Amino acid sequence: MPTPTDAAVVWNSALLDYDLGGSHPLNPVRLDLTIRLASELGVLDGISLLVPEQAPESELLRTHSAEYLDAVKRAPDVPYDVGHGLGTDDNPVFENMHSAASLVVGSSLLAANQIASGATDRAVNIAGGLHHAMRDSAAGFCIYNDCSIAISWLLDNGFDRIAYIDTDVHHGDGVQAAFYDDPRVLTISLHQHPMTLWPGTGMPSESGGEHAPGGSVNVALPPMTSDAGWLRAFDAVVPSLLGAFRPQLLVTQCGVDSHRDDPLADLALTVDGHRAIYQRLRDLAVHHAGGKWLALGGGGYQLVKVVPRSWTHLLATALGRDLAPDTPMPQGWLRAVRAAAPRLELPTTLSDGGDPACQPWGGDSEHRVDEAITSTRRAVFPLHGLDPDDPRD
Fold this sequence. Notes:
The protein is 33% helix and 9% strand. It has a seven-stranded parallel beta sheet, sandwiched between helices. It has helices at 29-40, 57-60, 66-74, 97-116, 146-155, 173-178, 227-245, 271-288, 307-318, 331-340, 370-380, and strands at 7-9, 122-125, 162-166, 185-192, 216-221, 249-253, 293-296. The protein is α/β, with parallel strands linked by helices. Helix 7 (227-245) runs parallel beside helix 8 (271-288). The protein starts with 6 loop residues before the first strand and ends in a 13-residue tail after the last helix.
């Protein structure tokens, strides 16, 4: 196993308390299984996991209203008359909701602080990435928006140009809303087309406010887009914009609900595609942001077969300990899962056998994703001084 690079991982089992209960899709077992898998494969050998604390109210108020915080704190006592998006099927009220959600935020702030302080260049919080929460409401399984809060904190602690890249299958609407008119933050979201998936936002025309034209970038991908199509779109949009924006740091939401087996959406990526995404993000951080990369988790609802493998690749990539796709699943991990779910068919390696190789975009229309690529480039590239029709830009 290679020695670790300048990177940090935030984790504590208390993060499993962010539990929406019952049969809710966002089951924290996915986090536990990820850490167990990464540990058994040696990815975390020699790494001192950083233990987070709850974010104080003053930090939550960066992107949430005081009224909303009060509602979250009161919710367990009045679960059927809360408002603010709480008490719904998506965002059910649970005991200690405020403290559990505050701990997720505290985890992302701790990871951000590692980078801002110079202790590391890369930091990971797989429990983070709750990108849908709005200023005054919960949304999409997200109580507090740790992504937005961490970015706001970074803007006050040494950074004034931050690029946020969201690879979740759902539009990164909460982060876009928080910084829609802030020229210091470039938000880029690649997601399933909003006409086919909640939350119904994220069209290419959503391109930034009056003071931040081109500051919001949305790539709306057709259902069943595969590894090759997704990566083709990424390569056709993201590197050029980062080159023009010149960020000092990348913040990425690394949701894995884009996988072909995810029960809540309709893209068709594989674990191999996710691995390729993380390697691209790491390379882009090196080439455009001095190597500085804050990686957060996100969605992902195939709890056993997908999330642990994909995010083990994320951890390995951030730590410079890349794992080969054909790495066998460790027997200890398999035995533990079989004991809990004996009928579940389990993967044998860290690969789905996917092929993430893609053809570069060249202004043509040979691929299903090209309409999405062209729409996004024409909406935002001119605002960054780039030619939307020139493949060299």
